[in-house]
Predict the 3D structure of the following.
Amino acid sequence: MLIKCAGAVAIVFALFYFVGASELLGALAEIDCVYVFYLILIAVVMIWISCLKWRLFIRAHARDVSILHLMKLYTTSYFFNTFAPSCIGGDVARSYQLGKYLESQKDAFVSTFLERFTGVLAMSCLGLVFVVLGSQATAGIEIAVIIVGVLTLMLALMVFSLRISNFCFDISLSVLRSFGFSRLAARLDSLFLKLSQAMAVARGSRVLLAKAMLLSFAFHLMTVVNTYVAALAVGWKEPNLAGIFVIVPLVLLVSLVPLTPNALGVQEGAFLFFLEKVGATKPQGLGVGIVLRAKVILIAVVGGLLLVGLPKGEVRASDMLREKN
């Protein structure tokens, strides 16, 4: 953890040195309160879309949770991602809180995992599409995007296909047993059976998966709008919307690399690298990353305040077993 924090500080200082503090401050000085309002509004819409998708998977388990409650849990996850130790991630925190609400940590885990994974899958698909189309923004990183995309698609086959999942897991268990890890293999076998039963709700409905992917692409469309508004905020008069559409999934994919806490410095550097390719100046590119980071920190503070108000006992499971719409 200390190494990651030191790395984040080093990357941030390097970015400031590379761009120039005075030029960066000049770009940030362009920010108007109107853009701040728009960015906050967009954040609410993005959280709402994510929670709509999250609710799809929750309802697939014959349970229901209000969108407002899910948005509250989702917002608190920003607090854990930003301020908590790396071992307590935002997804872990919101899954745990949802599990208390549902009185089923298993259903909460599967729903939260599927909500997150379908988002990563959508990002990876977009990245592969842009590589195939030969986008200028992907120049120099095509191999990395292809590797991430292929690995994600392979994992998607394991998640959504019982036959492929069983085949891969049987091989893994055989390898463990051959190396003398029979007890570990037995425990994993039991865990796999439980997860496989829980995943059945996603594997049994193509409509559910299609809806989730549509919401994932809608979310990423809003991330493009989010970045576009941030670009306007730092003084980029005519942002390259088509270029931003290409680079945003690439930035998010780069941000998945666990080099620093919450990709601090890595994400800002990715914005600088990619936005400069589509017409931004260095101060504008880094400025966009800093503005969006500041927005995340603001949401995290709100999430911390909401966390204080979460009821300790949550709600009985009987209140949640409503009829699916």
